[in-house]
Amino acid sequence: MENVRxxxxxICYSDQGxxxxxxxxxxxxxxxxxxxxxxxxxxxxxxxxxxDLRGHGASxxxxxxxxxxxxxxxxxxxxxxxxxxxxxxxxxxxxxxITLSFAQRHASRLKGxxxxxxxxxxxxxxxxxxRLKSVSKIQxxxxxxxxDELVPGLFARGASPQLLERTxxxxxxxxxxxxxxxxxxxxxxxxxxxxISAAALPVLLVAGAEDSKVPADRTFTSDKPxxxxxxxxxxxxxxxxxxxxxxxxxxxxxxxxxxxK
Length: 261
What we know:
Shape: globular
Mean pLDDT: 96
Helix content: 40-55%
Order of helices and strands: EEEHEHEHEHHHHHEHEHH
Number of helices: 11
Largest sheet: 8 strands, mixed
Structural class: alpha/beta
Low-confidence stretches: none
Strand content: 15-25%
Radius of gyration: 17 Å
Strand order of the largest sheet: 1-2-4-3-5-6-7-8
């Protein structure tokens, strides 16, 4: 892992391979380690950068509520620090919300963008209430108890215990204040379906056939010609672990098609 200081905050990141840049943004209570099985499958063809988002992994975790826009600006600062003019930005879950904010406000820095088990919809009122319950659990019972409850529901039925344990290990490293800040960022995010429908850039939308967190119909909100839709059979919310070869193949096909255009 490498480290840069962006706007007064330390951002840690993985940087592997050469070629067109693909930046991968992980989900809530994850880290760049979420991509540990996918990066080796991509880095032979592309330069793959995977940061630990604000409040996660080894990056700084300031106190207080975060915003999705603020987290997207961290990504912009990282691109600037690395002197990268353009990239393909792909976000998983929380990372997808950040990707949409970035695409809306910094499209000139993108060659394309995509959502992996994510959505342009905002939180429903029920989901907003559940964010507050998550914050309460983290504050009252700690990050270990929260992650133990969170992780099983991310996977399709029958996921191996080893995958669940690995995902928990990563989640346990989330600073509690980072998890709280990010939960509030997700709660307050706006509806950004129009970012997908109005995009001129190549867009990738990936859903898990067995994803109970973000069902396919909440991911596939546009079927314009520039939008590539892909469903991964047998996967829940965590195809980077459940089907890493298939996910990497989808990403490669998407970037290859985008480059040809």
